[in-house]
Design goal:
The chain is α+β, with helices and mostly antiparallel strands. The chain is 24% helix and 19% strand. α2 packs across α3 and α2 crosses α4.
Amino acid sequence: MPAGQKLKSLRNRRDITVREVEQASRRIADVKGDRRFCISNGWLAQLENGDSEPSIWKLFSLSVIYHANLLDLLLLYNIDVNEKEKYESVADPYLTQLIFQNGNGRCASREELSTTLNASQSSDGCPDHITYGHLGLTDFTMYPMIRPGAQLTIDTSHNRVLMNASRNEYERPVYFIELRGAYACGWCELQGNQLLIIPHPSSPMSVRRFTYPREAEIVGRVVGYSTNCVDDDS
């Protein structure tokens, strides 16, 4: 059902006319001291017929008059505030960042990841200790093992740096690190209170050093990633 028809159904459920909506919205606008909250009966008719789209101010008035949740009305127009974090990596793909879970607890970007989780994983959601990250398009720290743009699976239950020797680079733990307003991904070493982010030997990046844990904290260990086998020419 189109959004306008759904709004009409809400109005009919409240058993009020378009003129009564106009009168109620005028009272809201008067208290607010802002005419943008006012809804004319002619405009409301256009909205219900699909010939217009509401502003956030008018949608607020409708949510009050119809006793409806404003977030539910936003959903009628394909605006889901729970998807904010999901689209941050789309809006700025050059930054390394976390991809958070949405409000219902499901993995916000599950369909976008090609990594396979533990066999005990439920198809309805992801374990509490699993989250996801996006490796920024300018982050060459783990290149070419993990190329920029990769999607990362992060186990937050492993948030301490392991100092055990690894037999090869693929067994060496890769960590996702919070840098107070930014994120990084790489091998790590602790030297006293200094956390070193170690790049891949073939990477053009240099070792970075941060005071631990004041300037950097371990979010978790990267336990899976999807990455291209070749560089994207673009």
